[in-house]
Amino acid sequence: MVVLSVKEKLSQLGVTVREDAIENFRHLARITALKHSVGGRFHSGHWWRGPLLYALVRYYKPRYVLEFGTGRGYGAACMAQASLDGDFTCTVYTIDVVPPTQPQLWAINEGNGPEVRTLSLAQVWAKHLPSELTNRIYILTGDSLSVMNSWRKIGLPQIDFCFIDGGHDYWTVKHDFITALMVANPGCTFVFDDYTERRGYGVKRLVDQEIVPKVPLEAVEVIDILSHDKTMYGEDVPHKMALLQGEYVTTVPLNQFYSSKYVRRFMLRYVIYAWSRSAALKVKPFVERAQSAWRFLGESTLRKRGTNDA
């Protein structure tokens, strides 16, 4: 595999990002990708991925884009902006479990310093993004399993470009890749965020073991986004993305990587995996409350015993 910095990749694509354009990406990141750490620090989350996605969409000129993981919209906005600036027709379909109207804690810097507010994506986009940009973005609410199951049923089109940045565990990344292949046109380009050695993340495993062996060596590039992630385990890992270039994706994209029989078996297992994970997440708050109550009762009992003993 070829390893490049994001600046080297932009140069290879023939995209010159001027200083004023750089500031535009940074401003968009302060609105839609600002992060707030536990220690109270604010930082723009990997904002160089914006120029990279922008340049790739300008280069490939896809008619239909699929994004797994809208987040707060930084990636979708950058890709839609590329089609506006390039003056070609493009629709970005983006999937997320959080409805655009649902309020959430939102780190933002509107020019008066960073702060955390309770805002919805719809509110922020309406205030800060022009309608000619957001009109090119179609939000699909739900988990990727349910949305992709209904993709053809609701008449959505075959895709030409895919950005995978939803769930990062191996099973979910693989599901998103397989279901994207199912609706991909020949020559579809795939971009994977978080290609990194990080506990609980499966992007690197999928790319290294299930994509790289099935394409020419030069088909996959690893791009260093010039930033680092500080994990919950105290690890400091470089943030990288992987690119599967569309010119190496054959006439039947799914068959290039997986057999129909394998896909059927995997999808059945994934449905069980997704259901069990969803059930565990629903039960978790009750378990935590029970544990808290148990600890409280235990401490109360100890205090009572201590009082009696005295």
Describe the 3D structure.
This protein is 45% helix and 23% strand. The protein is an alpha/beta fold and 310 residues long. It has 2 domains: 2-258, Vaccinia Virus protein VP39 (Rossmann fold, 3-Layer(aba) Sandwich), CATH 3.40.50.150; 260-310. The strands form 3 sheets. The protein has an 8-stranded mixed beta sheet, sandwiched between helices. A two-stranded antiparallel ribbon has the order 2-3. Helix 3 packs parallel to helix 4 and helix 8 (170-182) runs antiparallel to helix 11. The chain is globular. It starts with a strand and ends with a helix. Residues 305-310 have low confidence and may be disordered.
CATH 4th-level superfamily of the largest domain: Vaccinia Virus protein VP39
In the CATH hierarchy, the architecture of the largest domain is 3-Layer(aba) Sandwich
The number of helical elements comes to: 11
Low-confidence stretches: 305-310
CA radius of gyration: 22 Å
Q: Into how many domains do the coordinates divide?
A: 2
Rounded to the nearest angstrom, the distance between the terminal CA atoms is 71 Å
